[in-house]
Amino acid sequence: MRKTSVPVLPLTGGCQCGRIRYRLNARPLVFYLCHCTECQRHTSSAFGESLRFRREDLDVDPGLVSMSRMSESGKLRHGWFCPDCGVRIWHGTEGSPEFNIKAGTLDDTSWLVPAGHIWCGSKQPFIHIADDELSYDAQPTDGYEAMKLRWQAMTG
Ligand SMILES: [Zn+2]
Ligand SMILES: [Zn+2]
After folding, report:
1. 113 C-alpha to center of ligand 1: Å?
2. What residue stretches are annotated with the CENP-V/GFA domain (predicted)?
3. Which residues constitute the domain of residue 91?
4. Ligand 2 centre from 3 Cα, in Å?
């Protein structure tokens, strides 16, 4: 298992044009990669990077716009993004107190090591996940508990 250290808080980040900035004031709950086809589409890339946090721990500049859609797991999902440059900052599921920052928006991404991979059933074939990594074919059914425990062990 690869180890890493969470930088000194707050973690800061923002969109591409600079209009929206945010500060995360508590340690993230977990960091993982999502290989679902919706993450592939909204990142226009191979996977989404999710840094999970509690809403009350995030200060974000006003002005984000949102869109909603039904997820592959049948829940209403909301995404918030900059109205000027279109970069998605964070998203979450209806009724959940936990949300995900799109981790590529952090000012410092050098310390990120994923604790797991979800929706590997639709991952791009050129992505190779090591045997000792935690991976799920679809949505974890344990509420991300195993992944959170691994994240705690990884980040000390
Ligand atoms: Zn922007
Ligand atoms: Zn996804």
Report:
1. 26
2. 11-112
3. 11-155
4. 24
